[in-house]
Amino acid sequence: xDILSNLKYAAGSKKKIKRIGRGEGSGHGGTATRxxxxxxxxxxxxxxxxxxxxxxxxxxxxxxxxFRNPFRISYQVVNLNKLQKLIDTKKVEDGNINxxxxxxxxxxxxxxxxxxxxxxxxxxxxxxxxxxAFSASAKQKIESLGGTIKEIKD
Length: 154
What we know:
- The protein is 18% helix and 13% strand.
- The chain folds into two domains: 17-66, no CATH class; 76-151, CATH 3.100.10.10.
- The chain has a three-stranded parallel sheet.
- By secondary structure, it is of the alpha/beta class.
């Protein structure tokens, strides 16, 4: 029979929590487990997460390799088979393909970012394409069907 004075927590449900800075009787008073002196023992101590106590930091110890070109143009890629699929599903009526049409149909993720047409896949219909860049095979396939290409200059 459970009487209020006999109630106990279920086994494993209560964790022993270290109550820090709650007086000497708690066993964690005084310095509150921060140690004696130094920046980290003080309140409001702030230090960079990568700071290693004056030791040479990891990001400076590790050798640097390669070159990152800050002027590199990263193109979004659109293949000809995607353009053909847009025409087949009647999402492009007049055969004119431009950034707004591609963005609206979620072929490219950013309307303002440059994109390049690549020649992967087959094209069956004549189209007029506006893009920032074209591969040689894409140009050849589009123009062989009588389509036109226009490079967008930013």
